[in-house]
Amino acid sequence: MKAPGAEQWVPHDGGMRKVRESLPDCRGCELWENAEHVVPGEGPVRARMMLIGETPGDQEDKEGHVFVGPAGHLLDKALVEAGIDRTQVYLTNAVKHFRYERQGKRRIHKTPSAGQITACHPWLTRELEIVKPALVVVMGSVAAKALLGASFRVTQQRGQRLELPGRQTAVATVHPSSVLRSNDFRRDFEQFVSDLRTAVDLLG
C-alpha cells in the first residue's frame, strides 16, 4: 500500500514550534517505523541562510538533532573556514528520518527512495515558508532532487547561483559525508569550503 505522504500531518499555522511538535506524529512514509527519533531542523527561525542536507545519519537518529555525527563535525569545520556562524543559520534535511540497513550490529545509511523524498517534501516546504531564507545551500543529491528536480546534477552545477521554485537564491554543493569518504580529502574539503564562500558572497 502506498504511503500517503506527509501533507496531512504538516501544520499550516503555529510557526516552527508547531512543526517541531507535529513531526513525531508523521506517518507519511514507512521510515518512522524503524527510526529512533525524527530529526527536525534547528536554528534561528528568521535565519538569512538555510542549509539543507539529505537525511539524518546514525548519530542524528540516536540523539534527535541535526548534523551531530561525523558529517556534522566536518560541516562545522567547513563553516568556520567559510566564515559562517552555525548558530546563525537554519540547518535541516530533505528527509527527516534515518534510512538504513543492518550489517551485523552496525546500521549503514541507505539513500532515501524517490517516494520517500517526495513524501517528506511538505515538511521542507513548510520550513522554507516559515524561515524565508534569503539564500539556501543545497547539500547533496537527495536535497537537490527534492528542491531542483531529478535531472539536477550537483557535480556539474555546484557553486553556481541558482533559483528555487519559491524564488529563493540557492547554491548547490556536495554533502559533507561525501567529503569524508573522498580519496582526496584536502582537495574536496577545499572545494566544499569554496562553495560555502560563494553562498556567503551571494548573501552579501
Could you please describe the fold and organization of this structure?
The protein has 204 residues and is an alpha/beta fold. The chain has a single domain, classed as Uracil-DNA glycosylase-like domain (Uracil-DNA Glycosylase, subunit E, 3-Layer(aba) Sandwich), CATH 3.40.470. The protein is 40% helix and 14% strand. It is built from eight helices and seven strands, in the order αβααβββαβααββαα. The chain has helices spanning 15-22, 58-63, 70-82, 114-131, 141-148, 154-157, 176-180, 185-203; strands at 49-53, 90-93, 100-103, 106-109, 135-139, 162-163, 169-173. The strands form two sheets. The protein has a five-stranded mixed beta sheet, sandwiched between helices. A two-stranded antiparallel ribbon has the order 3-4. A hairpin with a 2-residue loop joins strand 3 (100-103) and strand 4 (106-109). The chain is globular, with a radius of gyration of 16 Å.
Number of domains: 1
Q: Count every helix, treating DSSP H or I runs of 4 or more residues as helices.
A: 8
What structural class should be given to the helix and strand makeup? alpha/beta
Radius of gyration: 16 Å
* Average pLDDT number: 95
Helix content: 25-40%
Task: Order the strands across the largest sheet as they lie in space.
Answer: 2-1-5-7-6
Strand content: 5-15%
